[in-house]
Amino acid sequence: MRGGMTSKPSISRMGTSNACFTSTSSLPTSFNRSSKRRPRAIRKCTSDTSVWQARASNGPSVSLSNFRRKATVLMAQRSNASGVRNLVTVLERKCKQAKPSGKAMSPQDDPFSECATLTYIADDAYYRVVLGSANCVSALIKAMKLFPLHTILQEACCTALGKLCIGSGSNLTDVKNEDGVQEIVSAMRTHSSSIAVQSAACAALRRMSALLTEPTLKPDDKVMDDVITSLKTAKSMYITPVSKAQAEELLSALKLQKRLSSPTPSPTRCV
């Protein structure tokens, strides 16, 4: 003690360093850096068990993410365009050999694996051109028509079709010629309680916005009304935040276009 002041016990450098590293867990939450980086909670979708990317996988053929590795292998070399075209050929063959709806289908005849793999291949701009030249749009829409009750297949086809339309006017034209918008709306109606299908369909329609807003390309008024109704229904559901934002954005654009295209009533004159 000097000058009436009590001296605090000294702590060695090593002790100070250890204290800094070992005592962070005992600090309050506001001072604990690790507490600021807590993992984000997974959204729970109780009305649909097929939101594969928001829950754990229950089997090898359930989640779309299980086909990422197969797609990565096919995309490893840009010279593997033949392998990608062969994937579309297999999908077309399975569609031709499809059994009538309602009958049991063996796993080797199920085209879901090809559709799921295409959802990842369509991420690449080069392979979007390759898939377009291989009539992939037509094959996907045909699969949707043949298997309307296949929930995860409908989700995969909507996702793949939406990605194929990114920066590709020819693929958009193929979607129009094959009535792809109508088929996506039909999938939204058939699977009205499926969060996965609704989310994938909203994302696909948003990527096809040029097809819906361009006067020379857009479908007839009845189809446009069905699109608006389906988007309103999906927006009210507990779909993924990104898909909800896409639905709201497209819905606002379509409503504005409909308002501008409707004839304005002429003002009445008082006599």
TL;DR of this structure?
By secondary structure, the protein is mainly alpha-helical. It is 56% helix and 0% strand. The protein has 13 helices and no strands.
Topology, pairings included?
Blueprint: H1 13-22, H2 68-74, H3 81-96, H4 112-121, H5 125-133, H6 136-146, H7 151-164, H8 169-177, H9 180-190, H10 195-207, H11 209-213, H12 221-235, H13 241-261
Helix pairs in contact: 2-4, 3-4, 3-6, 4-7, 6-7, 6-9, 7-10, 9-10, 9-12, 10-13, 12-13
If you had to describe this structure to a student in words, what would you say it looks like?
The structure is a single chain. The protein is mainly alpha-helical. Helix content is 56%, strand content 0%. It has helices spanning 13-22, 68-74, 81-96, 112-121, 125-133, 136-146, 151-164, 169-177, 180-190, 195-207, 209-213, 221-235, 241-261. It is globular and about 50 Å long. Mean pLDDT is 76; it is low at 8-35 and 38-62.
**What series of H and E elements makes up the topology?**
HHHHHHHHHHHHH
* Class by SSE composition: mainly alpha
The parts where pLDDT drops under 50 for at least 5 residues are 8-35, 38-62
Query: Largest sheet, if any?
Result: none
Helix content: 55-70%
Large-scale geometry: globular
Q: How many distinct beta strands?
A: 0
Query: What percentage of the residues does DSSP assign to strands (E)?
Result: under 5%
Radius of gyration: 27 Å
Number of alpha- plus pi-helical segments: 13
User: What's the end-to-end separation, in Å?
Assistant: 106 Å
Assembly category: single chain
What's the average pLDDT? 76
